[in-house]
Write a structure and sequence with these properties.
The complex is a heterodimer of chains A (131) and B (154). By secondary structure, chain A is α+β, with helices and mostly antiparallel strands. Chain A has three helices and five strands, in the order βββαββαα. In chain B, a hairpin with a 3-residue loop joins strand 2 and strand 3. The chains are: A alpha+beta (131), B alpha+beta (154). Strand 1 of chain A pairs antiparallel with strand 1 of chain B, so a sheet runs across the interface.
Chain lengths: 131, 154
């Protein structure tokens, strides 16, 4: 079922450690939308310096160390990957429940309107297409 | 081996599991490790790196979790129509008017008359004269000085 292989090397293929100590990742543009990547990158800003660049359809994100940050840049990059997955799952859930949430909100706002603000014919049921 | 962070790479064929299942499994794995998702020609590549050395076989944990989520997804597919129908029915029920939006006044005529009287009093200019009285000093109002004023004078 699964083609699995185990490696013990410290350098992971998707991650490039640059000579100045910064770490570069290439985010698959077809898997993660730009808004998801930007949101995840923005979350990492308090922990390190983040640079975003476009390369074809992909997004290249470079993390460099910020003074006072205890975690290594590599760990921050790892957290970024986790955040991307979290955002991806959340965005899918968002899309699935959007219509229902909109409908609920519309009905809640309708119920919160003062009765005087609604024309009498609508309150009597004359505003709809039924009948 | 002890003290080293293990890295595991798992490839999942798109025929075996869809993106939704793999991403949910990957999210579950983020509790133990750093996970990176990539596309390959045949499906998805999941790279996992332990946060701390634990000796866990990451690919085994991933396989178990993937199996669990696939089972869950099959169940979700089976019950999807029923769940949609329940939600649709709940949303189609008529809405009762909010209790905070009464159609008629809740005050009795006596209270309403009292409030009207108070409003008329406020709207009249009589209170302005009273306010000007308040602004006057003690001496201006009563023509005598207070004990404190006398003491302050040189």
């Amino acid at each position: 079922m699964l083609g699995a292989c185990r490696t013990l090397c410290l350098i992971v293929s998707h991650l490039r450690e640059l000579t100045d100590g910064s770490v570069r990742l290439v985010v698959d543009g077809k898997l993660f939308s730009r808004s998801i990547t930007k949101q995840a990158a923005a979350t990492m800003v308090p922990r390190c310096h983040v640079h975003i660049d476009l390369k074809g359809g992909d997004v290249v994100v470079t993390f460099s160390r910020r003074e006072g940050e205890k975690a290594s840049v590599r760990d921050v990059a790892g957290e970024f990957g986790n955040l991307l997955i979290s955002e991806l799952v959340c965005s899918k859930l968002d899309a699935q429940t959007l219509a229902a949430r909109d409908l609920l909100m519309a009905r809640a706002l309708d119920g919160a309107l003062p009765r005087d603000a609604v024309p009498q014919d609508i309150l009597d049921g004359g505003g709809g297409d039924e009948g | 081996m002890k003290g080293e962070r293990t890295t595991a790479v798992v490839t999942v064929n798109r025929k075996e599991a869809n993106l939704s299942t793999v991403s949910r499994t990957a999210l579950e794995m983020t509790a133990w490790c750093y996970v990176w998702l990539e596309r390959t020609k045949s499906g998805l590549k999941v790279t996992m790196e332990e946060r701390h050395p634990s000796g866990l076989k990451l690919e085994d944990v991933f396989s178990d979790e993937l199996r669990r989520f696939k089972r869950l997804e099959t169940l979700e597919k089976k019950t999807r129509l029923v769940r949609s129908a329940i939600v649709g029915h709940a949303l189609s029920l008529p809405v009762r008017p909010a209790p905070s939006a009464p159609t008629t006044s809740v005050l009795d005529p006596e209270t309403e008359a009292e409030i009207e009287k108070l409003l008329a009093e406020i709207e009249s200019d009589d209170w302005l004269e009273e306010a000007s009285e308040i602004a006057k000093t003690w001496e201006e109002r009563f023509g005598v000085e207070t004990k404190e004023c006398k003491e302050k004078k040189p």
